[in-house]
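Record now logged for everyone:
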Amino acid sequence: MRSMLQASLLILMLLNIACDGEEDRFERIAKLRGLGLQTSPVIAAPSTDTSPSQVEFTFYAAAPLGETVTATPYQDLQGSLRKVSVANFTVGEVSYEDHASLRIVKVKATGVVPPASTFYFDPDNGFATARFAISLVGQSNSQVMVGNLVIYPFGSSALTTKNNLPTINITNPIKDGTINGTEQEIKAELTEVNDETYRVGWFVSGGRLTARNKVSTTWTPTGAGKYTVIVTARGTKTSAFGIDVVDVTAN
């Protein structure tokens, strides 16, 4: 029995070592990975009988260079009456933005907000949510990206005061700059909007981060070569999303 326990502990140790490898670190993009999504408008009003409330969606993902991705609506969004889905949700164009070490994948979609009678508006915060999702399939991986669109009743002041996108910009390293291959401080400048806090996330094409959810952190590249660094910001209430990407060369 003791030998079996020791063997089990050894296996767990080996698994922990394997999972600590660079390929398995969450911040390192080695395969198709969803990054976040933007909606326009950020928050929306319900549709009325005479005026549909239309929304445009942009999904962001990252993938290895050369990888192609297909995108389709993800239909398995069953839930309670408080989990209403966006109507007429249609996935459109997939485009690519190539960087030094990976490509940014953008997927456009459109949808219509259901009428107010469909929603449960929480009396504590005044809003409801509508769900939407797409399925991404690439050569390296598949991902389902699910989002919640914040809905305020027609005429609410929040439809104007909270309908803004944040800006987040990488200030170090600089775009197309050169760095040494040792530990680097990386920083972003975030402009918060909509009277809410934001969750920051860093992603890199190689190396390790000491903390991936802070505006300022440290990054150690794996050695000389070209790298791509990504930072994202997402609002904790409205899900308003911002992203910035830079390429650097390590000596």
